[in-house]
Amino acid sequence: MVELGFEDLAKYPILKEVEAYFRERKISLEELSLDDYRPVLERARERIFEAVERAKVSYRRGCPDLEIMSFLVAFLLVRASGSEFLMQKYSLSEARRIEELLQGEKSDGVFSYVVKALGIDAVALEDGTFELDFDRYLRLATRLHSERWKLVNRELSKGSVRIPRRDLVRLVREAVRDLIYERLRKAPAPKVPELLKGIVEELKSISPKPVRRPKAKGGAYPPCVSHALEMLSKGENVPHIGRFLLVSYLYNKGVGIEDIISLFSTSPDFNERITRYQVEHIAGIRGGGKKYLPPSCRILQSKGFCFKTEECDGIKNPLQFRGRKVERG
Ligand code: SF4
Predict the structure, then answer these.
(1) In the chain, what's the furthest Cα-to-Cα distance?
(2) 318 lines ligand 1 (CB under 6 A)
(3) Alpha carbons 9 and 289: distance in angstroms, whole number
(4) What's the pLDDT tens digit per position in 209-229?
(5) What CA–CA distances, in Å, run from 254 to 132, 156, 325?
(6) Which of 244, 246, 298, 300 for a ligand 1 pocket mutation test, highest count of atoms within 8 Å of Cβ?
(7) DSSP reduced 3-state for 47
(8) Where are the domains of the chain?
(9) What is the distance between the alpha carbons of residues 213 and 254, in angstroms, rounded to a whole number?
Protein backbone atom coordinates (compact mmCIF):
# COMPACT_ATOMS: atom_id res chain seq x y z
CA MET A 1 0.00 0.00 0.00
CA VAL A 2 1.50 3.33 -1.04
CA GLU A 3 1.67 6.20 1.43
CA LEU A 4 0.62 9.48 -0.12
CA GLY A 5 2.00 12.73 1.25
CA PHE A 6 0.50 16.24 0.88
CA GLU A 7 2.86 16.95 -1.98
CA ASP A 8 1.45 13.91 -3.84
CA LEU A 9 -2.10 15.14 -3.31
CA ALA A 10 -1.09 18.57 -4.54
CA LYS A 11 0.44 17.06 -7.67
CA TYR A 12 -2.52 14.76 -8.37
CA PRO A 13 -5.59 16.50 -6.93
CA ILE A 14 -7.99 14.24 -8.84
CA LEU A 15 -7.41 11.51 -6.22
CA LYS A 16 -10.31 10.68 -3.92
CA GLU A 17 -8.08 11.48 -0.90
CA VAL A 18 -8.24 15.15 -1.91
CA GLU A 19 -12.02 15.22 -1.53
CA ALA A 20 -11.60 13.94 2.05
CA TYR A 21 -8.94 16.60 2.65
CA PHE A 22 -11.30 19.32 1.47
CA ARG A 23 -14.22 17.96 3.49
CA GLU A 24 -12.05 18.04 6.62
CA ARG A 25 -11.19 21.69 5.98
CA LYS A 26 -14.93 22.45 5.49
CA ILE A 27 -14.19 25.42 3.25
CA SER A 28 -17.07 27.06 1.41
CA LEU A 29 -17.10 29.75 -1.28
CA GLU A 30 -18.51 32.17 1.33
CA GLU A 31 -15.39 31.79 3.47
CA LEU A 32 -13.18 32.43 0.50
CA SER A 33 -14.30 36.03 0.53
CA LEU A 34 -12.35 36.39 3.79
CA ASP A 35 -8.88 37.95 3.68
CA ASP A 36 -7.31 34.77 5.13
CA TYR A 37 -8.08 32.95 1.89
CA ARG A 38 -6.91 35.63 -0.48
CA PRO A 39 -3.78 33.68 -1.57
CA VAL A 40 -5.94 30.64 -2.36
CA LEU A 41 -8.32 32.74 -4.39
CA GLU A 42 -5.49 34.44 -6.24
CA ARG A 43 -3.82 31.12 -7.07
CA ALA A 44 -7.18 29.67 -8.19
CA ARG A 45 -7.70 32.63 -10.50
CA GLU A 46 -4.15 32.23 -11.78
CA ARG A 47 -4.79 28.54 -12.55
CA ILE A 48 -7.79 29.45 -14.67
CA PHE A 49 -5.96 32.21 -16.53
CA GLU A 50 -3.02 29.88 -17.17
CA ALA A 51 -5.50 27.43 -18.65
CA VAL A 52 -6.95 30.05 -20.97
CA GLU A 53 -3.69 31.72 -21.97
CA ARG A 54 -1.23 28.83 -22.01
CA ALA A 55 -3.43 25.73 -22.10
CA LYS A 56 -1.47 24.29 -19.20
CA VAL A 57 -1.63 24.94 -15.47
CA SER A 58 1.71 25.31 -13.67
CA TYR A 59 2.71 23.54 -10.49
CA ARG A 60 4.12 25.31 -7.42
CA ARG A 61 6.33 22.95 -5.50
CA GLY A 62 6.57 23.26 -1.74
CA CYS A 63 3.12 24.71 -1.03
CA PRO A 64 0.80 21.68 -1.08
CA ASP A 65 -2.01 23.30 0.94
CA LEU A 66 -2.20 26.21 -1.49
CA GLU A 67 -2.06 23.90 -4.50
CA ILE A 68 -4.78 21.52 -3.26
CA MET A 69 -7.12 24.26 -2.11
CA SER A 70 -6.66 26.38 -5.21
CA PHE A 71 -7.40 23.38 -7.46
CA LEU A 72 -10.74 22.93 -5.75
CA VAL A 73 -11.56 26.63 -5.67
CA ALA A 74 -10.67 26.99 -9.36
CA PHE A 75 -12.99 24.05 -10.02
CA LEU A 76 -15.85 25.79 -8.19
CA LEU A 77 -15.22 29.10 -9.95
CA VAL A 78 -15.11 27.48 -13.38
CA ARG A 79 -18.34 25.63 -12.57
CA ALA A 80 -19.93 28.85 -11.30
CA SER A 81 -19.04 30.60 -14.58
CA GLY A 82 -21.23 28.07 -16.44
CA SER A 83 -18.91 28.51 -19.45
CA GLU A 84 -18.54 25.38 -21.57
CA PHE A 85 -15.38 26.89 -23.05
CA LEU A 86 -13.81 27.30 -19.60
CA MET A 87 -14.87 23.83 -18.49
CA GLN A 88 -13.21 22.28 -21.54
CA LYS A 89 -10.13 24.44 -21.34
CA TYR A 90 -9.64 23.99 -17.62
CA SER A 91 -10.04 20.19 -17.81
CA LEU A 92 -7.46 19.94 -20.57
CA SER A 93 -4.97 22.29 -18.88
CA GLU A 94 -5.08 20.53 -15.50
CA ALA A 95 -4.73 17.22 -17.34
CA ARG A 96 -1.58 18.50 -19.08
CA ARG A 97 -0.14 19.55 -15.74
CA ILE A 98 -0.76 16.09 -14.27
CA GLU A 99 0.68 14.46 -17.38
CA GLU A 100 3.93 16.38 -16.98
CA LEU A 101 4.20 15.61 -13.26
CA LEU A 102 3.47 11.93 -13.81
CA GLN A 103 6.03 11.79 -16.59
CA GLY A 104 8.67 12.84 -14.04
CA GLU A 105 7.24 10.84 -11.11
CA LYS A 106 10.09 9.14 -9.22
CA SER A 107 7.98 6.84 -7.05
CA ASP A 108 6.73 3.74 -8.91
CA GLY A 109 4.17 3.24 -6.12
CA VAL A 110 2.65 6.71 -6.56
CA PHE A 111 2.77 6.34 -10.34
CA SER A 112 0.82 3.07 -10.28
CA TYR A 113 -1.61 4.40 -7.68
CA VAL A 114 -2.52 7.45 -9.79
CA VAL A 115 -2.91 5.39 -12.96
CA LYS A 116 -5.13 2.84 -11.19
CA ALA A 117 -7.19 5.57 -9.53
CA LEU A 118 -8.17 6.66 -13.05
CA GLY A 119 -9.55 3.21 -13.78
CA ILE A 120 -6.59 2.22 -15.95
CA ASP A 121 -5.43 -1.28 -15.10
CA ALA A 122 -1.89 -1.19 -16.44
CA VAL A 123 0.49 -4.01 -15.60
CA ALA A 124 4.16 -3.01 -15.36
CA LEU A 125 6.48 -5.39 -17.20
CA GLU A 126 10.11 -6.04 -16.41
CA ASP A 127 11.41 -4.12 -19.41
CA GLY A 128 9.68 -0.92 -18.23
CA THR A 129 6.72 -1.14 -20.64
CA PHE A 130 3.10 -1.64 -19.60
CA GLU A 131 0.25 -3.87 -20.66
CA LEU A 132 -3.26 -2.56 -20.61
CA ASP A 133 -6.65 -3.82 -21.50
CA PHE A 134 -7.47 -3.61 -25.19
CA ASP A 135 -10.88 -1.90 -24.64
CA ARG A 136 -9.47 0.73 -22.32
CA TYR A 137 -6.65 1.45 -24.76
CA LEU A 138 -9.09 1.91 -27.62
CA ARG A 139 -11.37 4.21 -25.65
CA LEU A 140 -8.51 6.52 -24.64
CA ALA A 141 -6.45 6.35 -27.82
CA THR A 142 -9.33 6.85 -30.22
CA ARG A 143 -8.89 10.63 -30.34
CA LEU A 144 -5.11 10.51 -30.78
CA HIS A 145 -4.24 10.57 -34.42
CA SER A 146 -0.56 10.02 -34.96
CA GLU A 147 0.46 6.70 -36.49
CA ARG A 148 1.83 5.24 -33.31
CA TRP A 149 -1.64 5.06 -31.73
CA LYS A 150 -3.01 2.83 -34.46
CA LEU A 151 -3.46 -0.73 -33.28
CA VAL A 152 -1.48 -2.09 -36.23
CA ASN A 153 1.56 -0.37 -34.75
CA ARG A 154 1.12 -1.92 -31.32
CA GLU A 155 2.12 -5.25 -29.86
CA LEU A 156 -1.04 -7.17 -28.93
CA SER A 157 -1.24 -10.22 -26.73
CA LYS A 158 -4.27 -11.99 -25.22
CA GLY A 159 -6.56 -8.95 -25.15
CA SER A 160 -3.85 -6.55 -23.96
CA VAL A 161 -1.83 -3.83 -25.66
CA ARG A 162 1.82 -3.24 -24.79
CA ILE A 163 2.93 0.39 -24.57
CA PRO A 164 5.90 2.36 -23.22
CA ARG A 165 5.48 4.41 -20.04
CA ARG A 166 5.53 7.70 -21.98
CA ASP A 167 2.47 6.57 -23.98
CA LEU A 168 0.67 5.33 -20.89
CA VAL A 169 1.09 8.79 -19.37
CA ARG A 170 -0.24 10.38 -22.56
CA LEU A 171 -3.36 8.22 -22.19
CA VAL A 172 -3.59 9.28 -18.56
CA ARG A 173 -3.92 12.86 -19.82
CA GLU A 174 -7.03 11.86 -21.75
CA ALA A 175 -8.48 10.05 -18.72
CA VAL A 176 -7.82 13.02 -16.41
CA ARG A 177 -9.32 15.43 -18.87
CA ASP A 178 -12.49 13.33 -19.12
CA LEU A 179 -12.68 12.93 -15.36
CA ILE A 180 -12.39 16.65 -14.56
CA TYR A 181 -14.75 17.64 -17.35
CA GLU A 182 -17.40 15.10 -16.27
CA ARG A 183 -17.10 16.25 -12.65
CA LEU A 184 -17.57 19.86 -13.78
CA ARG A 185 -20.50 18.98 -15.98
CA LYS A 186 -22.30 17.04 -13.27
CA ALA A 187 -21.53 19.32 -10.31
CA PRO A 188 -24.41 21.58 -9.24
CA ALA A 189 -23.69 25.27 -9.85
CA PRO A 190 -22.42 26.68 -6.51
CA LYS A 191 -24.05 29.70 -4.91
CA VAL A 192 -21.64 32.56 -5.47
CA PRO A 193 -21.28 35.06 -2.60
CA GLU A 194 -21.52 38.75 -3.45
CA LEU A 195 -17.77 39.36 -3.01
CA LEU A 196 -16.84 36.66 -5.53
CA LYS A 197 -19.34 37.67 -8.20
CA GLY A 198 -16.76 39.99 -9.75
CA ILE A 199 -14.36 37.08 -10.35
CA VAL A 200 -17.08 34.90 -11.86
CA GLU A 201 -18.12 37.76 -14.17
CA GLU A 202 -14.48 38.25 -15.14
CA LEU A 203 -14.24 34.55 -16.03
CA LYS A 204 -17.38 34.74 -18.13
CA SER A 205 -15.90 37.69 -19.99
CA ILE A 206 -12.70 35.84 -20.95
CA SER A 207 -14.66 33.09 -22.67
CA PRO A 208 -14.61 33.85 -26.39
CA LYS A 209 -17.85 35.10 -27.83
CA PRO A 210 -19.65 32.56 -29.99
CA VAL A 211 -18.05 32.67 -33.44
CA ARG A 212 -20.25 33.78 -36.30
CA ARG A 213 -20.86 31.03 -38.77
CA PRO A 214 -19.23 31.94 -42.06
CA LYS A 215 -21.32 32.26 -45.18
CA ALA A 216 -20.74 29.45 -47.63
CA LYS A 217 -21.73 29.72 -51.28
CA GLY A 218 -25.06 28.08 -52.11
CA GLY A 219 -27.29 25.79 -50.07
CA ALA A 220 -27.46 25.00 -46.36
CA TYR A 221 -24.86 23.34 -44.22
CA PRO A 222 -25.18 19.57 -44.16
CA PRO A 223 -25.99 18.12 -40.72
CA CYS A 224 -22.42 16.83 -40.17
CA VAL A 225 -20.95 20.30 -40.84
CA SER A 226 -23.63 21.95 -38.67
CA HIS A 227 -22.76 19.52 -35.90
CA ALA A 228 -19.05 20.42 -36.06
CA LEU A 229 -19.92 24.15 -36.02
CA GLU A 230 -22.23 23.60 -33.06
CA MET A 231 -19.47 21.82 -31.13
CA LEU A 232 -17.06 24.67 -31.81
CA SER A 233 -19.57 27.30 -30.71
CA LYS A 234 -19.93 25.46 -27.38
CA GLY A 235 -16.14 25.32 -26.96
CA GLU A 236 -16.16 21.54 -27.35
CA ASN A 237 -13.27 19.61 -28.78
CA VAL A 238 -14.11 18.57 -32.36
CA PRO A 239 -12.53 15.22 -33.30
CA HIS A 240 -9.98 15.08 -36.09
CA ILE A 241 -12.45 13.84 -38.72
CA GLY A 242 -14.84 16.70 -37.86
CA ARG A 243 -12.06 19.28 -38.19
CA PHE A 244 -10.94 17.92 -41.49
CA LEU A 245 -14.54 17.91 -42.75
CA LEU A 246 -15.16 21.46 -41.57
CA VAL A 247 -12.02 22.96 -43.11
CA SER A 248 -12.26 21.12 -46.42
CA TYR A 249 -16.01 21.75 -46.74
CA LEU A 250 -15.83 25.46 -45.93
CA TYR A 251 -12.78 26.09 -48.12
CA ASN A 252 -14.41 24.32 -51.06
CA LYS A 253 -17.49 26.48 -50.48
CA GLY A 254 -15.47 29.67 -50.81
CA VAL A 255 -14.90 30.60 -47.16
CA GLY A 256 -11.56 32.41 -46.61
CA ILE A 257 -8.61 30.98 -44.67
CA GLU A 258 -8.76 33.66 -41.94
CA ASP A 259 -12.49 33.08 -41.34
CA ILE A 260 -11.89 29.34 -41.05
CA ILE A 261 -8.99 29.78 -38.60
CA SER A 262 -11.01 32.13 -36.39
CA LEU A 263 -13.73 29.48 -36.11
CA PHE A 264 -11.32 27.28 -34.16
CA SER A 265 -10.40 29.98 -31.63
CA THR A 266 -12.99 28.60 -29.16
CA SER A 267 -11.51 25.13 -29.32
CA PRO A 268 -9.96 24.07 -25.96
CA ASP A 269 -6.60 23.18 -27.51
CA PHE A 270 -6.49 26.09 -30.00
CA ASN A 271 -3.02 27.01 -31.21
CA GLU A 272 -3.09 29.56 -34.01
CA ARG A 273 0.22 28.50 -35.60
CA ILE A 274 -0.73 24.81 -35.77
CA THR A 275 -4.30 25.56 -36.88
CA ARG A 276 -3.03 27.83 -39.66
CA TYR A 277 -0.60 25.18 -40.85
CA GLN A 278 -3.34 22.52 -40.91
CA VAL A 279 -5.91 24.74 -42.62
CA GLU A 280 -3.42 25.89 -45.27
CA HIS A 281 -2.34 22.29 -45.82
CA ILE A 282 -5.94 21.17 -46.45
CA ALA A 283 -6.46 24.20 -48.71
CA GLY A 284 -3.40 23.18 -50.79
CA ILE A 285 -1.39 26.30 -49.95
CA ARG A 286 1.27 24.22 -48.17
CA GLY A 287 2.72 20.76 -48.51
CA GLY A 288 2.25 19.10 -51.88
CA GLY A 289 -0.18 21.78 -53.05
CA LYS A 290 -3.12 19.37 -53.08
CA LYS A 291 -6.47 20.93 -52.25
CA TYR A 292 -8.52 18.37 -50.34
CA LEU A 293 -12.20 17.62 -50.86
CA PRO A 294 -14.35 16.79 -47.81
CA PRO A 295 -14.40 13.10 -46.88
CA SER A 296 -17.20 11.08 -48.45
CA CYS A 297 -20.43 10.38 -46.55
CA ARG A 298 -19.39 6.73 -46.37
CA ILE A 299 -16.14 7.63 -44.57
CA LEU A 300 -17.92 10.04 -42.25
CA GLN A 301 -20.44 7.34 -41.40
CA SER A 302 -17.69 4.84 -40.65
CA LYS A 303 -15.99 7.38 -38.34
CA GLY A 304 -19.23 8.14 -36.49
CA PHE A 305 -19.47 11.72 -37.81
CA CYS A 306 -22.59 11.41 -39.95
CA PHE A 307 -25.82 12.93 -38.62
CA LYS A 308 -27.96 12.11 -41.61
CA THR A 309 -31.42 13.63 -42.09
CA GLU A 310 -33.97 13.21 -44.89
CA GLU A 311 -32.34 16.12 -46.70
CA CYS A 312 -29.17 14.04 -47.18
CA ASP A 313 -31.15 11.74 -49.45
CA GLY A 314 -28.81 9.78 -51.72
CA ILE A 315 -25.81 12.13 -51.62
CA LYS A 316 -22.29 10.73 -51.52
CA ASN A 317 -20.37 13.75 -50.31
CA PRO A 318 -21.39 16.65 -48.03
CA LEU A 319 -20.56 19.06 -50.88
CA GLN A 320 -23.61 17.71 -52.75
CA PHE A 321 -25.96 18.67 -49.92
CA ARG A 322 -28.70 21.08 -51.00
CA GLY A 323 -30.97 21.66 -48.03
CA ARG A 324 -32.40 24.72 -46.46
CA LYS A 325 -30.82 28.14 -46.94
CA VAL A 326 -27.44 28.74 -45.33
CA GLU A 327 -27.72 29.30 -41.60
CA ARG A 328 -26.28 32.55 -40.37
CA GLY A 329 -24.59 33.46 -37.13
S1 SF4 B 1 -25.20 11.84 -45.15
FE2 SF4 B 1 -23.36 12.89 -45.71
S3 SF4 B 1 -23.91 15.05 -45.70
FE4 SF4 B 1 -25.51 13.99 -44.57
S5 SF4 B 1 -24.85 14.14 -42.44
FE6 SF4 B 1 -24.09 12.19 -43.25
S7 SF4 B 1 -22.03 12.65 -43.93
FE8 SF4 B 1 -23.07 14.60 -43.69
Answers:
(1) 66
(2) yes
(3) 50
(4) 666 677 666 668 999 999 999
(5) 46, 45, 16
(6) 300
(7) helix
(8) 6-106+164-206, 223-320
(9) 13
